[in-house]
Amino acid sequence: MPAAPLEARPSPLLLCRRAGERFHSSFDWLESWHTFSFSHHFDPAWMGFGPLKVINDDTIAAGRGFGMHPHRDMEIITVMVQGELHHRDSMGHTEILRAGEVQRMSAGTGVVHSEINDGSTPCRLLQIWIEPSRLGIPPAYEQKPFAIGSDWTPLLDPEGSGGAMAIERPVRLWRARPQPGDRLANPLAPGSQGWVQMIEGSLEIAEAGASLLAGDGLGFDAASIEAFRAGREPADVLLFELR
Question: Against a cut of 0.85, is the pTM above it?
Answer without folding.
Answer: yes
